Amino acid sequence: MYQTSLKDLASPLSGGFQEKQPADMPAANIVFAVFSGTGLVLSLIPLYWHLESWNVGTCGYMVWTALGCLVHFVNAVVWNGNALNWAPVWCDICMLFACSFTRF
Q1: Which of 8, 9, 30, 72 ranks highest by number of CB atoms within 10 Å?
Q2: Contact indicator for 101, 68 with CB cutoff of 8 Å
Q3: Total structural domains in the chain?
Q4: Does the pLDDT value for residue 93 go beyond 80?
Q5: pLDDT value of residue 82
Q6: Residue 59 domain boundaries
Q7: Considering the domain boundaries, does residue 63 fall inside one?
Q8: Closest CA to 46 of 66, 32, 28
């Protein structure tokens, strides 16, 4: 996928090492952020109706899904194109949610 030359293969100790990223990565990240935001909004729309009818299980699942979409949306927006640790506490919170989102 990438064209490499001898200059690109310099050792990391010499300061010539540069990590290459695909050109379509920001576009994929924007699409991911849009879908995460859309999922957040769509999962909260019927919450009022289910709260009126006391559907506790359905409300819990909708809030849980909305939290998952919110975490992924914030991560896609804040860390778009970089890997700097802007908020170390947020990373801990995201890992807590990421571990629990996959255990259904």
Answers
A1: 72
A2: yes
A3: 1
A4: yes
A5: 81
A6: 25-101
A7: yes
A8: 66
